[in-house]
Write a structure and sequence with these properties.
about 240 residues, alpha+beta, Ribosomal Protein S5, domain 2, five-stranded mixed β-sheet, four-stranded antiparallel β-sheet, about 30% helix, about 35% strand, rRNA processing, ExoRNase_PH_dom2_sf
Length: about 240
């Protein structure tokens, strides 16, 4: 059983030279060990396949870490049913790092998502017929576990000069300076993931990049939550 468009969560993100959209399809199912979030990533024909594969690995790892939301947050009908979220992701263009926009887009769609409550008259020892489940007329936002934000840097040291840290590098720079770091940070400076390729400076350089990633996450997360609150206030004006 699915839900109609009123509960849809969607997002559009343009960040770090990449543009991504995400639309969430929510379906009811009995509680099980199956994944509750299933990313389905498509990309424009001109986007290299290896970039899409790398992005898929990153998303699946964050989902496995419950970085976006927990299983409990999607349970309904007294814990007997759960919402399964199919994330329909489209990568429209890439001129730089893809994971930054992708991570922001998924988080934004989940913050935007609204779902109804489900209820059933079935006894606890009787399997639930999904087609007979009742859905509430009211919708609510889910409780996100975190708002992960990815930041990509290139580290470059010109001869006889200090280390340079380049944020949001375009595609050409990856070929010129292959030393890169991708840092995924959540609320309260929680580090979900650090990927490093090549030599990215000393410990102080890494600390500086982490500090910048934390600052970006705070700005992005606050912007998402403010947009959500603004949308809720506008909705109340119609009643």
């Amino acid at each position: 059983m699915g839900v109609n468009g009123r509960s849809a969560g969607s997002s559009f993100a343009r960040q770090g030279g990449a543009t991504v959209t995400c639309n969430i399809e929510a379906l009811l199912a009995p509680v099980s060990d199956a994944p509750i979030i299933v990313p389905v990533i498509q990309a424009a024909p001109n986007i290299p396949k290896n970039l899409v594969e790398d992005a898929m690995v990153m998303v699946n790892q964050l989902v496995a870490q419950n970085a976006f939301c927990t299983r409990d947050a999607l349970k309904t009908a007294g814990g007997r049913l759960t919402w399964l979220l199919n994330l329909h992701i489209m990568i429209l263009n890439v001129d730089g790092a893809i994971c930054d926009a992708l991570c922001t887009c998924i988080a934004g769609a989940l913050v935007d998502l609204r779902l109804p409550d489900a209820s059933t008259d079935c006894e606890e020892d009787i399997p639930i017929d999904i087609n007979k489940v009742k859905l509430s007329e009211t919708f609510h936002h889910i409780e996100v576990a975190d708002i992960p934000v990815s930041s990509t840097f290139i580290v470059y040291k010109p001869p006889n000069e200090e280390v340079k840290i380049l944020c949001d590098p375009v595609s050409e720079l990856f070929r010129i300076a292959p030393n890169t770091a991708m840092i995924v940070v959540g609320n309260n400076a929680r580090i979900h993931r650090i990927n490093q390729s090549g030599i990215c400076g000393d410990e102080m350089t890494m600390k500086h990049m982490v500090k910048m990633a934390i600052g970006r996450q705070k700005v992005v997360a606050e912007s998402m939550l403010k947009a959500k609150e603004s949308h809720l206030m506008k909705g109340k004006e119609y009643f």
